[in-house]
Specification:
Elements (H helix, E strand, L loop, with lengths): L1 H20 L3 E10 L6 H11 L9 E7 L2 E3 L14 E2 L4 E2 L1 E4 L3 E9 L5
Parallel strand pairs: 1-2
Antiparallel strand pairs: 1-7, 3-6, 4-5
Helix pairs in contact: 1-2
Bound molecules: zinc ion.
Length: about 120
């Protein structure tokens, strides 16, 4: 399943951040999933639950934000008409994807022990 490899690399990135910051655990992680990234947020949550045992994310809360696909004309910046073709007619340009095809680790809440 596609979602498993995504979760695996997400946790790798979280673990790198944990090490870098000397954190003891992860409170929560926020992942943004683009509408057309091809990732099912429900499956991603299930994959996360399966994977997180014995990782730094064992007690972390997974927050998923769905990001709608956004397009704009590369020339004039006008978004295409909703429901219409992905094209700017005045400029005769195919619309450019601005957001919505990515999976982003948007926010990470780390538990860092106080330095005594
Ligand atoms: Zn245009």
């Amino acid at each position: 399943m596609h979602e498993y490899s995504i979760v695996s690399s997400l946790i790798d990135r979280v673990e790198a951040e944990v090490k870098k910051n000397g954190a003891t655990s992860v409170g929560s992680l926020t992942v943004q999933i683009g509408e057309i990234s091809g990732v099912d947020s429900r499956l991603l949550a299930i994959a996360f639950d399966t994977f997180r045992e014995r990782t730094c994310c064992a007690n972390a809360e997974l927050k998923i934000e769905n990001v709608p696909a956004t397009w704009k004309c590369p020339k004039c910046g006008t978004p295409p008409v909703a429901g219409g073709p992905l094209r700017c007619f005045p400029c005769n340009q195919p619309a450019e994807l601005v957001a919505g095809d990515e999976i982003i680790l948007a926010h990470l809440e780390l538990e860092v022990p106080d330095h005594v």
